[in-house]
Amino acid sequence: MPDVEDVLKEVDRNMPTTIEKLLDLISIPSISSDPIGKPGIEQAARWLQDELSAIGFEARIVTTPGHPLILAHAGGTTMADTAGLLFYGHYDVQPVGVAEDWTHDPFGPQILEEDGRHRFYGRGASDSKSQLWTFIEGLRAWKAVHGGFPARIIVLLEGEEESGSQNLPAFIEACREELACDIAFICDSDMWLPHQPALTIQLKGLVHEKLTVFASNGDLHSGAFGAVAANPIRILSGILAAIHDEDGRIAIEGFYDGVDPIPSHAREQWAALSRQADPLEKIDLRGGVIEAGHSPLEAIWGRPTVDMNGITSGNQGPGERSVIPGYATARLSFRLVEGQDPEKIRECFRRFVRSRLPEGCSAEFEGANGSSAVTMPRDNPFVKAAARGLEKEWGVPTVLKGSGGSIPLAQQLKDTVGLDCIAIGFILPDDAIHGPDERYDTERLHKGIRSWVRILDEVQHMKR
Amino acid sequence: MPDVEDVLKEVDRNMPTTIEKLLDLISIPSISSDPIGKPGIEQAARWLQDELSAIGFEARIVTTPGHPLILAHAGGTTMADTAGLLFYGHYDVQPVGVAEDWTHDPFGPQILEEDGRHRFYGRGASDSKSQLWTFIEGLRAWKAVHGGFPARIIVLLEGEEESGSQNLPAFIEACREELACDIAFICDSDMWLPHQPALTIQLKGLVHEKLTVFASNGDLHSGAFGAVAANPIRILSGILAAIHDEDGRIAIEGFYDGVDPIPSHAREQWAALSRQADPLEKIDLRGGVIEAGHSPLEAIWGRPTVDMNGITSGNQGPGERSVIPGYATARLSFRLVEGQDPEKIRECFRRFVRSRLPEGCSAEFEGANGSSAVTMPRDNPFVKAAARGLEKEWGVPTVLKGSGGSIPLAQQLKDTVGLDCIAIGFILPDDAIHGPDERYDTERLHKGIRSWVRILDEVQHMKR
C-alpha cells in the first residue's frame, strides 16, 4: 500500500502542470463586486467544476441570486461511513483598484525569478486562487496514488467572498444536510512567518458601511457660495476625523459594548510569539495609530477596529473645478471581536454620523456584510492533526494564531451546520492581497500542497 | 443719424437668430481642463472667430502652449483716435462633473418654458457663453445700425478661464501694446437681483492646490493591517477637518497676515443692500459655517476662504474593497482678499499640511492659479457711464457690488497694461454655474444685449 511519501512524490512530479493550470486560473478576471467581473466569474466556476470532475468529484455549480458556488462530493475509502472533511476556498477576486498602480498585468501572470523566489503576480494570486489550488492539487495527488480519499470529502468554492458573501447564508441553510461533516478546513488565511505554518483559530467579524453625506444644496460654485454654504467634504472629513480619539480608541458611542479585555493567557501567548519574530516587519507602521495599551499583534487579533476603505466627492480631475459638491461618500469597514453584534455596531455608527450632521444636511447609508467574530476550539482532534501535518512539512512548530481578517463563512457553518472550522493558509504579509501587484510564489504553492497531503495523512491515522 | 432706440430695435428684431446661434455655441463641448475638450475648444474658437469677422472685426486666433485666445480689433468712428474699449469673455466651460446628476443634456441645449421664463440648460449656458454673446450681439447690432462703432473696440475671448488661465499672463505681456485702451469690460459676473443690474468692483484672488497624502505603505488589506498601519483617508480627513475652527475662521497659521478688517463704509453699504433684498434666498445656508462676526454677504465678498472642491481615495465602488489605500487626494481652492499674496498663502497651506503629517507619511502638492484680489475704482467715468446704461435698461439703480469669485485677468490687465476693469454680467445665483443643469434664460440674454447697447451709447456721450 502506498504511503504519504508516494503522494508527496506525485505532488513534486506534477508541479509544472500544477503551476501552468494555476496561472490559467489566475488569468480569469473573476471579480465579484463589479458587474464587469460576471463573465470571469462564470468562466472560473466552469473551470473549477471541470478540474474537480477530472479528479473524480461529483461537482456541480450551484446558482444563487448572485454568483454561483461549486459544491463537489467524493466518497471516502477509509473512514467512509462516519468521517467527512469539508474544504473551503473562494475563486472570486478583489477589483483591480487603480490599474496604474500595478507594475504587472493583474490578469496575465508569469513566473518571475526575484530574490531567489519564483514569484507570480496577479489579482487573486494570493487571495485566494493559489490557496484553493493547494488543497485541490493535494486531493488530486492523493487520489492519483491511492485511488480514493481517506475520508468523505466535500469541496465548497465560493464566488462572492470578496463582495460580502451575501448569498452564502441561504445556501448553507438550504444545503445544511449535504454540508454535514466533521470539520471544515478554510483555506484563506496566512502563515505565521515565511517558513512557519499556522492555524488561525480566531477570526474577526465584519461590517461594511457606505455613507453619503448630502449638503443642503446640489453642486455650487465655490467662489460664490464657499463662504456660506455647507461643504459635504468638510462635514464628512469632520465625521471621519472624530471616529478615533487621540489614543486610537473608537469614539463611536456603544462601540465597545460587550467587548471584554483580551484574556491574559492570550496576551501572554501573543507576546511570546512577538518576541520570537515580527510578522509585521515588512510593513511600515509609522503613521499608524495603534490603540493605546496594546501591542500591534493585540490590536490586530484582539481589538475591534474601524477602517476607511474609500472616499469620493466633487472634482476627480484631471483639471480644477471650483465647486462645492452636493454630496460626499465614504466607505468603511468594521472588524469586530467576540461580544460585538454586527447589526448593533451598524446602528451605533449610523447614530454617531446622524448626531454629527449639521442642520439641513442628511446622510444615506448602504450596508453590506454583517458577521460576528468566531473562535475555534484548540482541543479539537482535527486541530491537533492539522497542526502535526503542518509541522511535519515545514519542520517547525505550528503556531495557533488569531487574525485581523474575517471569514463570515466560519460563523455561518458553526451556527447552521454546527461545524467547527480551522483556517489554514499560506499567505504572507507582503503578498499585497487586495492591493496592486498581489503575489505568491511557487515554493509556498508546492509546500502548501504537500501540507494538505500530510494533513490528510494525519487525519487518516487519527484515533476516532 | 440713428439713435440708441434704433439699435435696440435691431437687437429685438434679431433675437430668434441670436438665440439659435447661441444654442449652437453652447452645444460645442469646449471643456478646457480635460484633454477630451480639446476638439471642442478648437471648434468654439473658430466659430467665434467667424462670428467676429462677420461683424467686421479683424479677428485672429492666438495660439498658446495651452488653448487659444481670440483677439479681435475694430476701429471706431466717433472717439476713434483716443478711446478704446476692451470686451472680455471666455468660451471654455467647466467639465460636466457627474453626468447622471444632469437632468438635461449638457451639450444639447433647447429652449424650455418654465415658470414663465424661456430657459435653456447646458454646460456654459451661464458661465460664460451667454455672457460673451451679450456683448458680441450688442456690438453686432450697433454696427448693423451705425455702420461702425462709437470707439475703438478690442474683443478678447479666452479658452482657459476654467482651467486656471495659465497662459493668459504671457499673452498679456506679449500683446500689452495691442491691448492698450481705456477700460476693460469683463463680462463674466452676476446681477444683484433678478431684475437689478450690478457692476462688480471687487474680485477675490484665487489659488488652487491639489494635495496627495501618501501613507508609509501602498494599498494594504484593511483586516490584516487596519489596526496598525497609517490610513491616508484618516490622515487627510484630520487635516481637512483642522482647516476651520469652530468659529468658521481658517486655522492655517499666517492665513490672515496682511488682511485688514472690512472697512466700515463697505460693511454699511453691504448691510443696506442686504436689507433691500437677499440675493442668497435660493441657496439653503443650513449646514454652512459662516465666519463668526460676519454677515453672509461680508463673508462672501469681504473675507478670505478655503474651499474643498474634491476628494478621492481607495475604493470608488461599485462594490466593497477591504483596503487601506496607499494615498488620498484632496483638491482645494483659496479665495483671497486684498493684502494676501497667493504664493504666500500656498506656502502657509503646505506648511500647515506638513506640520500635521504623521512620521513616515508624506505629501505631494500640485499648485494651479495664483492671483490676487482686485478692487476697481468707483470714480472712473466708465464705471459711471456703465452704471447709467444699465439703469436705463433695467429701470432700477445699478448696484456696485463685491464678489466671491475671481477673474485673474483683472489683476493681470491692471499690472501689465495699467488697465482698469469693470465686471458686468447677468448671472443669477440659481444658474447652477459649475454644477449640473447649468442654465440661463432668453430674457436676460435679451436685456443683457440691450444693456451693452445702452452702455455703448453712454460711452459715446461721455465727456472726455
Automatic annotation (TrEMBL), chains A, B:
Q: Where is the Peptidase M20 dimerisation domain?
A: 203-360
Q: Which GO terms describe its biological process?
A: proteolysis
Pfam families on file: M20_dimer, Peptidase_M20
One of the entry's Gene Ontology molecular-function terms is: metal ion binding
Instruction: Note the SUPFAM superfamilies from the entry.
Output: Zn-dependent exopeptidases
**Superkingdom field:** Bacteria
Which InterPro entries did the record assign? Answer: Cyt/Met_Dipeptidase, Peptidase_M20, Peptidase_M20_dimer
Which keywords annotate this record?
Hydrolase, Metal-binding, Protease
- Write the protein's name: Acetylornithine deacetylase/succinyl-diaminopimelate desuccinylase-like protein
Q: Which organism is it from?
A: Chelatococcus asaccharovorans
